[in-house]
Amino acid sequence: MASIRFVRQFSFASSVIPTMHFQKSLPRLSIPELKDSVHRFQAATSPFLTASETDEMKRLLDDFEASSGKTLQALLQKKNKNNPNTSYISDFWYDMYLKDRRPIPLTHTPFMTVMQDPIKLQQSNVALRCTNFIISALNFKSALDSNKLQPDIYYTKEQWKNSGLYNNLCAFAPSRISWFVSYLFGAFPLDMSQYNNLFSATRKPDDKKDILTNYKNSKHIIFFRAGKIFSVQVIDDDGKLIDPSSLRSHIEYILCTESEDAFPLPALTTLPRDEWTVIRKELENQGNSELLHSIDSAIFVVTLENRKMLSKDFDNTHNDDAKFLLTGDGYSRWFDKALNLVFTEDGNCTVQMEHSGSDGIPVVRLMTDVLKDTITNPAVLHSQPLPKNGSSSNVVKRLRTSLTPGLRDKIKDSVVRYQNRVSTLSFDHCRFPLGVDDCKPHKIGGDSLAQLVIQAAYYESSGGKTVPTYESCTTAAFKGGRTETLRSCTMHTKAASEALYSSHTDSKVILDLLQKCSTYHSKLTREAALGKGCDRHLFALNRIGEENGIPTHDLFSSEVFRKSNQFIISTSTLPNDELIAGGFGPVTSDGLGVGYKIHKDRIGLLVSSYPDNSATKFVKAAELVLDKIRYAFSKSEFL
Hints:
By secondary structure, the chain is of the alpha+beta class. The protein has 22 helices and 18 strands. A hairpin with a 2-residue loop joins β6 (220-225) and β7 (228-233).
């Protein structure tokens, strides 16, 4: 494939160290000892199980360790040894996503919104901002394809971050030892393999298991507007990128589409996967194969929504804005696509990802780098005039469907069903003046504070309940690493929640409990990041048994194990200031989806729920908890 010629000089192509330079020498994710995972899972589930359930869990875990667990551990170790270029969890994890037959919107397609352009004229013109984002994203892709994108590296010493000595030594070192050279500087390269699933990738529905497909020679982008589908070639046959001013003109042309398509094809991607598989085959048999291939093979898709945000900025988020950014209306989101850039009419930009091919790190890196590039080095400016050659009608291809009356009915039905489902989803949020700088004097970590607030708020709002809680921790420090579950509901957070729930606990006791929560949460985070959790290991042991036809142990089919893996609270954090809002749906009907971000001076929560729970009730409880913690912090000065 010919590499894209850069429109201008920019930071994406400046890496001395090749993008994939460290992949060969990355350490492998080790398989934990069976006894350690058994012990950790027992400890992780005790806070929310009853006494009898805890005894039952211990009995099942002990029996599993003494019986089939040993066989499964040996099989897993053998498979891991025979597959040295990935991790023991990678294939099983992809299968977990792709075999899931439920609809993928809301839980598998989170959204993240980037900050606004500080120049209002650049922000408010949606065609202009969309053009700049597309050009910068294509340049990011070019740097990735040509192995010139700076690798992800975790630096323990900031002095080496932009060091010529470090960069040159690592680049000079052969790939098979480059990680070890980096390690000597206290710098830890991260796995970059998921970046291959960012562009030109899609999840195609298929029988029993979907297919994750990449199209390396893609040269076009698909636009959705009011249910209508448009294709624009953005790379010519010589690898030259489209002129930015021309692209802006093409986007303006698409924006002129006002009326909705009565039969919006994207609605079908909201269906259960088996149902969508059958309908997709009907579409192909009806002569729509080329259209579907155009969508599947696009570098990415762009949704041009025909509505503005209700709030003027995300410091005053409107709950309906957050809901719309996650869900759309069923007309213009192709949820199967790995990467979907969503623009509202007032220029707000949101990215929506399909989770099977990658975790959050690559998408966060992409959007952060692209945003910075659009602000510091925009491809087009608001002062530049549009081309006057009127060629857009010849370049922009409207893709039209061929539909039988039966297919039309199925599309209309899918819109209704999706909108009915979305109507049951609610969002609420809070923003509270308590942040990292307030925690530091008390030796409390920001993330541990946020997770404790989430636990205590649920305890407060539910009348004293603790439930399984999911926090994702990346294992990207290892080859083929994905994530590990960090179970943030612990005996320490339970004790702190009880103390905060009581009106008689003094501030010194609360502060002491908060510090214990932070210490233990930091320990869990370190263990999870180093691959020493328990959830992925037990998951892999169960899957290796299925793969080898070994009867499922009673542990995995027990009610107490099922309860322990019903994550009533699912959480995720935004890691930097460029991303100003992010959210997703609950993973259970009675659950909560909690996106959070802790700044130096404040914390923000964006919470989703269905009717069986209440985001608003939870948010009010969180504000009460935060007020109690702030009071405890203030009183500590006099203790």
